[in-house]
Amino acid sequence: MNILDEAKKIKPYLVKIRRDIHAHPELGFEEYRTQRSILRELKKLGIPCRKMVKTGVVGLIKGKKPGKTVLLRADIDALPIEEENVCSYRSKNKGVMHACGHDTHTAMVLGAAKILSVKKNEMAGNVKLVFQPREEFVDSEFDPAEEMVRLGVMRNPKVDMCAALHADHSVLCGKIKVIHGPVMANADKFRIQISGRGAHGAEPQLARDPIYAAACVIQALQSVVSRNIDPCDPAVVSVTMVHGGTAMNVIPPEVILGGTIRTLNDKVYKLVKDSMRRVVEKTCESLGLKGKILFIKAYPAFANDERTAGLFERSAAKLLGGQNIVKNAVSSMGGENFAYFARKAPSVFCWLGVSKGKGQYPIHHPRFDIDENALVVGAAVLAGFAADNTGLN
Ligand SMILES: [Zn+2]
Ligand SMILES: [Zn+2]
């Protein structure tokens, strides 16, 4: 089967699905219309499917012969952005827009399902299709990807490998970017409470000044990465919030600081957290105040499995030609809840070129849009990877 030709044949289908989802974007855990569309399309293809975690969907293309199970994942949520594009498929939902390309991801996984479902009698293994809600909003209490894993998405049949593509505005349509090694960062947040004693601004001797202590803590936090972490290990500590004080002649009793930490592995993450705790507590103590730091869990870091990334790269090169695989791509300090799948099975997360070239707007911009030929490339690459690992090619 020539998968690229198959993908080209279904381009009108891919464009229709993508435009329909683009015109009806929904925020995380509100993707009910999107969920209905996905279920309807999978049923049309004769693929058994069910709802999972509120607005998610899981489908299974069951091969006739035994073999590996390949999971293909799309995230399906949109962003709270007012779309500024003028086009026939412009968002009909005020203040909500598919500005991160998740409409594209959804259409491509449905397209890969359409290509593969007609071949299920020749397939040795299975393809699990995961449409995951709510990627854009980190919620430490309840993560949909973590919840899908908890509910058994990686079992029955057991998943052997996972793959996902994400739209990349910096890469020309027709190309894909494969990362070997770390892909996304631990992206946790922190909250620091500095408690002292309030007083009149003219009588600092009666206060334990949290404003001054906060200034010292912010300075000292700059030593966490520069003096504690191996310079070859990327790490970021950013203080992004300083809240304190109500009047110009009052020393307040308390200051709250907030910010984010990014690291690419758990060892460095632990080192950063331990150093931060020490800096906050000891700096405040030395000034006669109390400093407390609270870490708020977000998406964990993950890396591409070396062997799986190699398999994906070979499958993609077979379809697109080696010259269209962008090499030496580096990791991002962003976060992604694909991490919860990637930490359970050998996985690969790749960037799909969607850029039209000159005048291309970046993701999360109110005028972000894609070259729709990328839908063909993405559906072909996902189907090709699944086909190569289920004995179809
Ligand atoms: Zn995004
Ligand atoms: Zn995204």
What does this 3D model show about the protein?
- The chain is of the alpha/beta class and 393 residues long.
- It has helices spanning 3-9, 11-23, 32-44, 102-117, 144-150, 210-228, 266-286, 306-320, 339-342, 373-388, and strands at residues 49-52, 56-62, 65-75, 124-132, 161-172, 176-177, 181-184, 186-195, 199-200, 235-244, 250-251, 254-263, 290-296, 302-304, 325-326, 347-355.
- The chain has an eight-stranded mixed beta sheet with strand order 1-2-4-3-5-16-6-15, sandwiched between helices.
- α1 packs antiparallel against α10, α2 runs antiparallel to α4 and α6 packs antiparallel against α7.
- It is elongated.
- The chain binds zinc ion (ZN) (2 copies).
- One zinc ion (ZN) binds next to loops.
The first-level CATH class of the largest domain is given as Alpha Beta
Low-confidence stretches: none
Strand order of the largest sheet: 1-2-4-3-5-16-6-15
Helices and strands, in order, run as HHHEEEHEHEEEEEHEEEHEEHEHEH
Helical content (DSSP H or I, runs of 4+)? 25-40%
CATH-defined fold name of the largest domain: Aminopeptidase
Structural classification: alpha/beta
Distance between the termini: 7 Å
Superfamily (CATH H level) name of the largest domain: Zn peptidases
Bound molecules: zinc ion
Strand content: 25-35%
User: Any idea what the shape is?
Assistant: elongated
